[in-house]
Amino acid sequence: MNPDSETEMLKGFAEQEYKYGFVTNIESDTLPPGLNEDVIKFISNKKGEPKWLTDWRLKAYKIWLKMKEPHWANIEYPPIDYQAISYFSAPKNAADGPKSLDEVDPELIKTYNKLGIPLEEQEILAGVAVDAVFDSMSVATTFKDRLAEKGVIFCSFSEAVKEHPELIKKYMGSVVPQSDNFFAALNSAVFTDGSFCYIPPNTKCPMELSTYFRINEPNTGQFERTLIVADKGSYVSYLEGCTAPKRDENQLHAAVVELVALDDAVIKYSTVQNWYPGDKNGKGGIYNFVTKRGACRGKSSKITWTQVETGSAITWKYPSCILQGDNSTGEFYSVALSALKQQADTGTKMIHLGKNTKSTIISKGISAARGQNTYRGQVMIKKSAEGARNYSQCDSLLIGNKCGAHTFPYLDVRNTKSHIEHEASTSKIGEDQMFYCKQRGISEEDAINLIVNGFCKEVFRELPMEFAVEAQRLLEVSLEGSVG
Amino acid sequence: MLKIENLHVSIGGNQILKGINLEVKAGETHAIMGPNGSGKSTLAQVLAGHEEYEITDGKIEYLSKDLLGMDIEERACEGIFLAFQYPVELPGVNNTYFLKSALNAQRKYRGEKEMDAMEFIDLIGDKIKLLNLNDSLLKRPVNEGFSGGEKKRNEIFQMAVLEPKLALLDETDSGLDIDALRVVANGINSMRKEENAIIIVTHYQRLLNYIVPDFVHVLVDGKIINSGDKNLALELEEKGYDRIVEEAKA
User: Fold this and answer.
1) Domain named ABC transporter: which ranges (chain B) (predicted)?
2) Residue B83 in contact with partner chain A when CB distance is under 8 A
3) Nearest to A439 among B82, B94, B141 (CB)
């Protein structure tokens, strides 16, 4: 490839427009910007929460006030003014909560249709229960009955607070405490909604659970909270996928996801994240500061995180596993793409406490245009973790000359009877590879897609089938416009 | 089919080809022989459209079109196939999927219906047998972990599936043992037809025992210094390049 055509190609990457850029016109019940105790009380009151939860939020707020925003990650962004953010927004008609799709605001349905996720079709065709979050309030929940038959609880977080307070009280904050980090503390204080899932003992969840998150109100922070508890011997696969409309203001997103796996339980948590990445200068994208952590609390339990991160201007995300139970397993499979001027600092933490615990990390970072991609991973093997094993593989793929890939693996081993393997590679899509593909008649764009998909294969095969297809399509869309 | 006139090519300021004239008609097989560094591979790469090379003079006409004005993929879709001297590895890209993508890209260009997976599997069945190819090669990533011989065989397999009008074989015999050479040569011979042409770039005469060319050209220092029939190749093998060069000068 000569320098000119490469420049052309990079230009294409940089200028690719976000496909899902549109804003839905719905009147919102929005709080003015600002954060103080009254705001937190307003949110709690608005959601009809019990006093213990209001107090829990206020405690988190007090902790947060004492904390400083972390800046150790390999990302740059202008300072965030937390007083300029509005902390509550809900679709207006949702006060009573719609009972079925017919009651859902048609504008919302239209939005989902534009995104290619028509709920009504999904119900019938995909057999997936969807708890769709539009801004901060759940607007549609499906397949509840079928799940209820098995004793599976899958509902919005607010609903769980009302219907299953004992479970929320027991598990909320047990994996990610309020004081865990700056963004988790903020979330604990102001979270508006999210999903809750409980799988009873010895139960295989009869379907893949899926939630679509959306952010739609300008200047509204989105603070989701998800809690999944898999009781002894149970199994659940949870899919999370996101897109957001185009806007000019940067949007803060600070979610918390907690997973708890008891004895012999298995949780698969898959994410395809496609929030608005900003324009070619990084303007207008989502700031995604997420705390995701799973606790393999029981013996022989297993938690698998699979993520495909193509969106957001900034991604700060380290889905982690605490391997407490003996013989428990943690897995992390990740594809992170940074194109345009996106910055991703993502990875995982595997904390081995139990005996014979195992962890696997497969990370694939792709950098294009002026994107910066950082893998940051920590493998910690505590003294108690005799016979622990870890395998890590971190590969980076560069497309063009103005992007960057960085790898920061941290290893902390306190037990001599453990085993750690780490492999890393960095490669560039070679001119010879492009020439070879084109010489067979394959266009530049298709050639890049082929090579990128080949690079990500080990991660894609961990995704549920329909998600794998979507992930592949997302990568293609994100790399689109590579020619001219 | 192909008409090269006064072709001058340089790379990084170094003149590699210094006035090539060559005409190839449909149904013909040409062999281009020459010592290392004579520009044989450059010629093949230039015909395929490699962007590293600068065309400083001359023109190339292919199927009555200006070849130099065409993109790499356009040339491929118009039926030009280069069997690489060093086939490129594409980690993680399934060999069969790659070939299907290539075939469908070319079919689409020609306005034909794209093939689905079943049709494609049917199509490649015979070609696999033709080249005595191990099934496992089809499931592996393109050229990754292939032996030298497997890579070359895979190139000719791709050629058999894509059915090019003009095939450029760049040192296809290198890295092949005698049995593999025979299989590959038989494969290529079975593809020789009235309507297509082959240009074989080779250092040794060995391959030409199996694929008998209609014309042999000797390329030395960027120029074709001698052309003849298959006997010229034998003569070369016997005398060596130096003698031929001297005789040409004389």
Assistant:
1) 2-246
2) no
3) B82
Crossing angle of helices A444-460 and B95-109, in 10° steps, is 150
Which of B54, B55, B97, B101 has the highest number of chain A CBs within 10 A, making it the mutation to test binding with A?
A: B101
- Decide if A438 touches B, using CB distance below 8 A: yes
Domain B31-37+73-249 -> CATH class: alpha beta
**Under DSSP, is residue A144 helix (H, G, I), strand (E, B) or coil?**
helix
Backbone angles phi, psi at B121, to 5 degrees: -60, -40
From the CA of A8, how many Å to the nearest CA of chain B?
A: 14
Do B49 and A439 make contact, defined as CB atoms within 8 angstroms? yes
DSSP code for B39: S
Give kind and range of the element (H or E) at residue A361.
strand A358-368
Strand A343-352 relative to strand A320-323, pairing? parallel
Find the radius of gyration of the CA atoms of chain A: 22
Residue with the two structure tokens 């910066």 = A372
Crossing angle for the helix pair A51-66 and A182-190, nearest 10 degrees?
150
**Integer Cα distance of B183 and B155 in angstroms:** 13
CA distance B165 to B188: 13
Question: Cα–chain-centroid distance for residue A32?
Answer: 27
Whose tokens are 């006060």? That residue is A95
- Please list the pLDDT of chain A residue by residue as tens digits (484 residues): 344 444 444 444 434 445 554 454 444 567 788 899 989 998 898 888 999 999 999 999 999 999 999 998 888 888 888 988 888 766 544 334 445 555 555 554 554 555 555 454 434 333 334 454 444 444 344 566 778 889 999 888 888 999 999 999 999 999 999 999 999 999 999 998 888 999 999 999 988 887 544 444 343 457 889 999 999 999 999 988 765 544 545 578 899 999 999 999 999 999 888 777 777 777 778 888 999 999 999 999 999 999 988 878 889 999 999 999 999 999 999 998 888 888 889 999 999 999 999 999 999 998 888 888 899 999 999 999 999 999 999 999 988 888 888 989 999 999 999 999 999 888 888 889 999 999 999 998 899 989 998 899 889 888 877 677 777 777 777 776 543 2
Residue among B82, B88, B106 whose CB faces A432 most closely: B88
* Cβ contact B186:B201 at 8 Å: no
Note whether ipTM > 0.90 here. yes
Q: Which residues, including other chains, have CB under 8 Å from residue A329's CB and lie 6 or more apart?
A: A296, A301, A302, A303, A323, A357, A358, A359, A360
Query: Are A453 and B49 inside 8 Å of each other by CB?
Result: no
- Residue B163 has what pLDDT? 95
pTM, two decimals, is 0.79
Residues 6+ apart with CB under 8 A from B196: B26, B27, B79, B163, B164, B165, B166, B167
* CA–CA separation, A235 and A151 (whole Å): 13
CA distance A295 to chain B (A): 33
A433 touches B: beta carbon within 8 Å: yes
Inter-chain CB proximity A438 and B73 less than 8 Å: yes
Q: Which of A112, A131, A475 is nearest to A308 (CA)?
A: A475
Query: Measured between CA atoms, how close is A461 to chain B, in angstroms?
Result: 12
Tokens of A292: 């995701």
Distance set, CA A400 to CA A51, A446, A452 (Å): 55, 16, 13
Query: Given a cut of 60, is residue B70 above it in pLDDT?
Result: yes
**A325 and A354 in contact (C-beta within 8 Å)?**
yes
Half-sphere exposure of A47 (CA within 13 A, CB side): 29
Is residue A337 within 8 A of residue A313, CB to CB? The reply is no
Cα(A291)–Cα(A157) distance, integer angstroms? 17
Cβ pair B48:A439 closer than 8 A: yes
Interchain proximity B101–A446, CB inside 8 Å: yes
SS3 for A248? Answer: coil
